[in-house]
Amino acid sequence: MFYREAGHFKDNYRADMATFPIREDRIGIITLLLIALVAIPLVHLAGIPPFAGDYFFNAILIPFLILAMAAIGLNLLAGYCGQISLGAGAFMGVGAYAAYNIAIRIPEMPLVLTFLLAGAVSALAGLAFGFPSLRIKGLYLAVATLAAQFFLDWAFLRMAWITNYSPSGSVSAPPLVFAGWHADTPVERYLVVLVFTIVVAWGASNLVRGNLGRQWMAIRDMDIAAEIIGIRPIQSKLTAFAISSFVLGLAGALWAFANLRSWEPYAFSIDRSFQLLFIVIIGGLGSIIGCFLGAAFILLLPLIVDAVPRWLSIPVPAGAGSNITLVVFGALILLTLIFEPHGLARIWGIAKHKLRRWPFPY
Amino acid sequence: MSIRITKLSVLLLSAALCLPAAAEAQENGQFIPVVSYRTGPYAPNGIPWADGIVDYLELVNQRDGGINGVKILYEECETGYATDRGVECYERLKNKGPTGAAFINPLSTGITFALTEKTLVDKIPLITAGFGRSESRDGSVFPWNFPLIGTYWTAADVAIQHIAKELGGTDKLNGRKIVLLYHDSPFGKEPMPVLEVLAKKHGFQLTMIPVTSPGVEQKSQWLQIRQLRPDYVVMWGWGVMNPTAIQEAANVNFPRDKMIGFWFAGAEPDVVPAGAQAVGYKALMLQHGAGRARVHDDLDKYVYGKGLGKAKPADTGGVLFNRGMVGVMLGIEGIRTAMAKYGNKPMTGEQVRWGIEHLALDEKRIKELGFEGMISPVKISCADHEGTRTSRIQQWDGKSWNIISDWYTADEAMLAPLLKEAAARYAKEKGITPRDCSKES
């Protein structure tokens, strides 16, 4: 009723190939972007809760956006190209430490360029660890990427120059300055992260619809068939590793510079890799919107489960409360995967489908 | 029917919306956040520590009616020892209460590092009693950091002093082999610069062996130690790493009385799981050890007597429980010092910072507080955010910790230049102009 394609006629290829071919989707996404880019900062300035203080930005929006971006990076590799990776956290770390090193060794470098270079360094690391994927598949590849995780963890702790010879191995990021503009307040940092996330999400959604994305999906669905129809596995697998690591590296640099500000190597440990993999699986393999839904689920659910008794003024002892959070969180993950193994993106897809056929959905 | 349902749902919805608002209706008082962990890999250590903090806050409320009559409001937030959860807790709690958080006191080096930058902007003192960045002792560069009553560098120096004493003098250190077995993280790496300097100075051979977090797998490390046959093993561990190391030491027959844990490797959860194998194991004390003082009697009377206690009454004398109490006591005394200047009302973070920086506890005051014998006198100043550089050694006899040494004082002549250099490096990296401490009042 509100959401119907009937009456939309496309008279050129351009319109047919648009990122959002349905007008309602376009309006929706523009509204969403306006809310994120304009309304949220304005509401913050007006001082209306929950956007009034720093909490919403520092603890929820910034980590959410960066995790969603990192999940897009991993999804390109795992969801679209079918190469399961357990090294996503480490590639984020490569980006973070590369950005840190570039920023302190060449302070004149514009920060955007620093972040892009950090992504490039991470892409190179991804390429290096992507080579085994040419020979091994599936779980064996997952183990090989696990090796990447452990090697890079080791490197962050052991190679002193990576942390600029900091005695304890922890480093802190230089200020976030873009062409003289100091992004100091949480809202400013939120806007920086938002712009990067929008660009990455837009780029990724176009990438996966194009030549490269189709090659990846062909490899994912059946690599021998893909090879027979003329897709070069070396090229497409390695590009998947490189581009995925680039996005992960960029997300890592932002995680370090805009979110943590000072960090130790454990910020990019195997736990981070698992977290990203969970985001991608729960959100939906092979879906860009799924990355956002998954990141919101993983990040917000523990906070909400934790907050509900507080809102209802039910006194729960701190120890019991945190254990309940773990139990409920685990149960919800299990239920989600049992009832919708294709992830939240699939639920989103079904909802959309029903809306389009409303009032007679089937 | 449908109208009734609509009405009902509107009612319920409005009730649901009102509840959080009602719950957040603010009482007047001093808000103190408790960022703790009762779950996750480090929970056995985190639980008694958190109990100590919460019980002491409750004690001050029940016994004295608050700090100089200002009631303490507190809220506990669970981190699971994860840095990002810790940051979330901090962001959630920092503006609570009428004046915001008085200070923040996380028991995690990772969270400390992440908050060092944030507390500076939010103007909230960061108390890290016995841990954190060692160079943050320099208050001219780190105005908001307070590594009270002991830094890792102090601990490293005291550990070597004790080894020298057991061997019969510092000259006996020459040619000896000492192993540093450390948790492979910034916290475990902290003591290295000092141990390296000491190794050069006294001529002992220092071997540093990392243990990957959380430290349940140490076979190869102890094989290496067995081959090396060191005279002493200094252990910088936390959580499950410590009992594992003691068990592995027993497996390779390394004498436990030649192992010296630092003060976060010297509590009951570190030795009890290792059973009889832990007998003889030694550890540094962060001022206090296990055992009861007058404050514990007050706890029994005012907190546990009213059924408000968090721990089992028998556990209130434990090392980590005491550590939680001592850390938060120092913060509260800092608030009290600030109140002497600014009046008896809830203090802001900035006022509390001034208070902690001017905190002075002499023997008499410590006795009044009921902490007699648990800490030595503390005097904080702009140049010295540590306050005291003393420590003792304790030994586990299978049932309890026994103090086996006198007070040691860290060698300031050796530490001061190192600290100055490290703080200057940080200041340069971050573009901080250090305060002039001679001009601070």
**Which CATH architecture of the largest domain in chain A is right?**
Orthogonal Bundle
Share of residues in strands of chain B: 5-15%
CATH homologous superfamily (4th level) name of the largest domain in chain B: Response regulator
Oligomer: heterodimer
Name given to the CATH architecture of the largest domain in chain B: 3-Layer(aba) Sandwich
Number of structurally distinct domains of chain A: 2
User: What fraction, in percent, of the residue positions of chain A are helical?
Assistant: over 70%
The largest beta-sheet of chain A arranges its strands as 1-4
Overview of the molecule:
Chain A is mainly alpha-helical. Chain A folds into 2 domains: 1-52, no CATH class; 53-356, ABC transporter involved in vitamin B12 uptake, BtuC. In chain A, 70% of the residues lie in helices and 2% in strands. Chain A contains 14 helices and 4 strands. Chain A has helices at 13-16, 23-46, 55-80, 88-105, 111-130, 138-158, 186-209, 211-221, 223-228, 233-260, 270-283, 288-311, 318-339, 344-356, and strands at 171-172, 177-178, 181-182, 262-263. In chain A, the strands form 2 sheets. Chain A has a two-stranded antiparallel sheet with strand order 1-4. In chain A, strand 2 (177-178) and strand 3 form a beta hairpin. In chain A, helix 3 packs antiparallel against helix 10, helix 5 (111-130) packs across helix 10 (233-260) and helix 11 (270-283) packs across helix 12. Chain A is globular, with a radius of gyration of 21 Å. Chain A starts with 12 loop residues before the first helix and ends in a 6-residue tail after the last helix. The model of chain A has no long low-confidence stretch (mean pLDDT 89). With 441 residues, chain B is α/β, with parallel strands linked by helices. Chain B folds into 2 domains: 30-150 and 291-390 and 420-439, Response regulator (Rossmann fold), CATH 3.40.50; 152-285, Response regulator (Rossmann fold, 3-Layer(aba) Sandwich), CATH 3.40.50. In chain B, helix 5 packs parallel to helix 7 (192-202). The longest helix of chain B is centred in the C-terminal third of the chain and has 24 residues, at 319-342. Mean pLDDT of chain B is 88; it is low at 10-25. At the A-B interface, helix 3, strand 4, helix 12 and helix 13 of A face helix 1, helix 2, strand 2, helix 3 and helix 4 of B.
